[in-house]
Amino acid sequence: MHLLARLPRCLSVILLLVGLGLPGAWLAAEPAPASPEAAQQQWLAEHRQLQVGVVLQAPYAQFERRRREQQLSGAHVELMEALAASLGVSLNWHSYPDPAALEAALQRGEIELAPGLQQTPGGLRLWRYSDPYLRIPHLIVGERSGAAAVRLDRLSLREPVAVRDGSGVQRFLRSSHANLELRAASSERQALRQVLAGEASYAVLDEAQYGRLALEAEFAGLQVLGDVGYPLLLRIAVRRDLAELAGLVDQALRNLPAAQLEALQQRWLRAAVPGLGESAGFWRSLALLLTLLLLALLGAAWWLREQHSELERRLLAAREDLQRREASEQKLRLTQFSIDHSTVGILWVNWDSHVHYANRAAEQLLGYAAGALVERPLRDVEPQLDMDRWLGLWKRARAAGEAALGFETRCRRADGSWLPTDVSISFLRFGDTEYLVVYLTDVTERRRARAALEESEARLKGIAGNVPGLLFRLERAAPGAEVQLSFIGEGSAGLVGYPAATLLEPGRGIRSLVHPDERDGYWRKQQAALDGDSDWHWQGRLLTRDGTPIWVDIKATARRLEAGRVVWDGMVWDISEIKQTELALAESRAQLRELAAHLESVREEEKAHIAREVHDELGQMLTVLKLELSMCQLAHGELDADLRERLQHMSKLLAQLFQVVRDVATALRPPILDAGIASAIEWQARRFEQRTQIPCLVEVPEQLPPLGDARATGLFRVLQEALTNIMRHAQAHSVEVKLSREADELQLSISDDGVGFDPQRTRTGSFGLVGMRERVAMFGGSLRLDSTPGQGTTLYVRVPLDAQAEETA
Questions:
Q1: Helices 677-692 and 709-725 meet at what angle, rounded to 10?
Q2: In the chain, how many domains are there?
Q3: How many CB atoms are located within 10 Å of the residue 801 CB?
Q4: CA 102 from centroid of its chain's CA atoms
Q5: Are residues 588 and 687 in the same domain?
Q6: 405, 396 contact by CB (below 8 A)
Q7: What CATH number is given to the structural domain containing 69?
Q8: In the beta sheet, which residues pair with residue 80?
Q9: Alpha carbon of 266 to those of 205, 217, 231, 263, 272: distances in Å?
Q10: Residue 451, domain member (yes or no)
Q11: pLDDT tens digit string along 445-475?
Q12: Are 243 and 127 part of one and the same domain?
């Protein structure tokens, strides 16, 4: 039944193509010129093997295992092998999973032709298509219910139709049958399963896929109920640049026998539709008669359906053309609206400098009414634009093509006033007519901003030039970029003798002026500020142009701007006089400290000398006097009671004098110092306890390094002064004295639990703490005082132990 139906179908398609006047050869956007037969044969002789690409889809092309090897088979494979045999060439097959991969292979030049493609507007840019060699109808498939043929235009929304999503027949049904409820399916198999599951009443798929799926037991209960009138027209596509091969393939297709194509379609693509139920004998004859009648009716119905389908195709084409025109008109209206409402004035000007079109922005900028600018020459707007100058601009713009010519000028408005304008000119060819498109932009505000900026820059330069120093700016455009010196004030000439332009040269800058002895410190501080985007301060010496060193103070403040940009604004001050004063003051202080140390040393030596004199000379004299007095007591004491009493009184006075001499000698220089600083500290603490009855805890190490006499005396005097202050002011209940060694230093700490005080608010005229600090500084040591009101006081004294800190006698 289907074999007989297929033949009139093919014949009708051919007659329809001839009646419509469609070309019988290749359909392309631009027909290629016919090549002579000799050129085709020569090309064929040079190319004995063709590269064929095919999309793997059963039953068109698939791999089958034959003799332990996988080979391609299918309708397209068989067709191409027949064509290759007629042309006398061999085929090299390339298989791809989908049409997109096939097209990518074509663009890479891997294939030359491909069978089984449908002609599309996009494909015409890549392929040359042959006449269709197979016409595969799309069938309406439903369950076996004995129902008559189904027509899509009579279906209701309650009878959904399943169709593969994204297919051409889905787009066709959506555009031509608005009455249908389409159910999208991922594949033809899924569409048939929707019918079996009751999710759809019918499924639409092409005859080849149905013929393949109808052999499966799952779909045995389905049958063909009609044709949608939208066939698949399969063609052979040849690479666009191979015109000779396209002609050879087209000729080979025409030479292929129709019986061979019919057999190919019958073997691979014919739907295996089961016939009506037949029985033996009588029923077989009756079925044959009914079949013939049904074939006649189907032929008439098919012809009517083809007519209906053709009308539907024409209607669809007309609808698409109408939609394209509406879309184009919409785009044109949007473009016109955008041009009319643009903030930039736009003029289309003819070669004779007359305005052909002006948008609303141009009319408003120039003060003209709507349409008043049309046909006016441009010299009414720009009086200096005479014909010679206009023709020169015309030639330059035409030679530049799409590149625009730009300049600034003044345009005269309709009221005679002048408008500062930025003009940009581009060449435009529209059809057979040429124009210059003139874009006008009001730059009044830009000129005002530029004038304000120039005035601001001039003011800044004036300020920078009169500042008694050197202003500069460092900039870093982005994170990780190199820092550049972008500005130096003109004060550089007065400060270092170099003009700003010289210091801005590559490799110069302020770094090049730094004194060689101080470059390391300068670069280290500057690099730390640049790495941390922080402020920068440095004092040191710069060399002027004549080589004179000057002391400068450099301060730069960092500012972070948008997009990671960082700038450092700074100033260089000449502090040579201040630095000389500081150096002189430091030298004077050093001399005063040396003098104080010398005086202290002399005083201690004098005290020691006086103590020795008192102890030795006066002590000896008092001892002799005591012996003489004792002898007098022994010789004359018993003779006179009054004399004996006087001698006893003189003996008591002499004993008291002995004690006074010992106290004076000890106060001048305690003899315990000769036993070491540790023993002296313990002795002084015990004396403090005896005098004040305040417990004093002493902690000294057993082994101490050698300590010079002057340094030991200094530490002892500090301890004496500290204990005296505690006795007078601290109101303490306990005192702790600790002597320890830390690295190369000796530390003495004196703590009390008294009332404490604020170290920042010392009494005027009190020199006790100042004297202690100066005494320690003479030995290269340091003194620190920690005290809080109500929480006691702790005094820390550190003295270096190295030989360089030792004080020589």
A1: 20
A2: 7
A3: 18
A4: 38
A5: no
A6: yes
A7: 3.40.190.10
A8: none
A9: 17, 21, 16, 5, 10
A10: no
A11: 777 887 777 776 666 666 655 566 778 888 8
A12: yes
**Domain-embedded: residue 453:** no
The DSSP result for 309-339, as a single string, is HHHHHHHHHHHHHHHHHHHHHHHHHHHHHHH
**Residue 261 identity (one-letter amino acid):** L
How far, rounded to the nearest angstrom, does the alpha carbon of residue 382 sit from its chain's CA centroid? 47
| Radius of gyration of the chain from its Cα atoms, rounded to whole angstroms | 58
Q: Are residues 25 and 130 in the same domain?
A: yes
Query: In angstroms, rounded to a whole number, what is the distance separating the alpha carbons of residues 545 and 508?
Result: 13
Tell whether 117 and 23 lie within a shared domain.
yes
Instruction: Find the mean pLDDT for residues 487-491.
Output: 78
Distances in Å between the Cα of 550 and the Cα atoms of 464, 507, 556 are: 20, 21, 19
Distance CA 408, CA 455 (A): 21
Pairing mode, strands 405-412 and 418-430:
antiparallel
Q: Which two tokens stand for residue 485?
A: 């010196």
Three-state SS at 613: helix
Range 654-682 average pLDDT? 72
Count of alpha carbons within 13 angstroms of residue 638, beta-carbon side: 3
- 120 in the same domain as 188: no
**Average pLDDT over all residues of the chain:** 78
pLDDT at 498 over 70: yes
- Spell out the residues 6+ positions from residue 428 whose beta carbon is closer than 8 angstroms to its own: 348, 434, 435, 436, 437
Is 238 part of a structural domain of the chain?
Answer: yes
d(CA 176, CA 619): 141
Which of 630, 648, 669 is at the close of a domain? 669
- Residue 454 included in any domain: no
Q: Which amino acid is at 309?
A: S
Q: How far is CA 423 from the centre of its chain?
A: 37
Flag whether pLDDT at 733 surpasses 80: yes
The three-class DSSP label of residue 509 is coil
Amino acid sitting at position 780:
G
Per-residue pLDDT band for 279 (boundaries 50, 70, 90) equals very low
Residue type, 50: L
Residues 598 and 549 in one domain: no
Q: In this predicted model, what pLDDT tens digit does every residue of 740-793 receive, in sequence order?
A: 888 778 888 899 998 888 877 765 545 567 777 877 777 778 888 888 888 889
Does residue 438 share a domain with residue 372?
yes
To the nearest 10 degrees (0 to 180), the angle between helices 576-613 and 641-668 is: 150
Q: Which helix (H) or strand (E) holds 244?
A: helix 243-255
State the first-to-last Cα distance of the chain, in angstroms, to the nearest integer.
Answer: 137
Least reliable range by pLDDT among 113-122, 186-195, 249-258, 609-618: 609-618
Residue 106 CB contacts under 8 Å (≥ 6 apart), including other chains: 53, 114, 126, 127, 239
Collapsed DSSP state (helix, strand, coil) of residue 624: helix
Three-state DSSP class for 754?
Answer: coil
User: What domain range includes position 156?
Assistant: 138-230
* Cis geometry, peptide bond prior to residue 59 (ω within 30 degrees of 0): yes
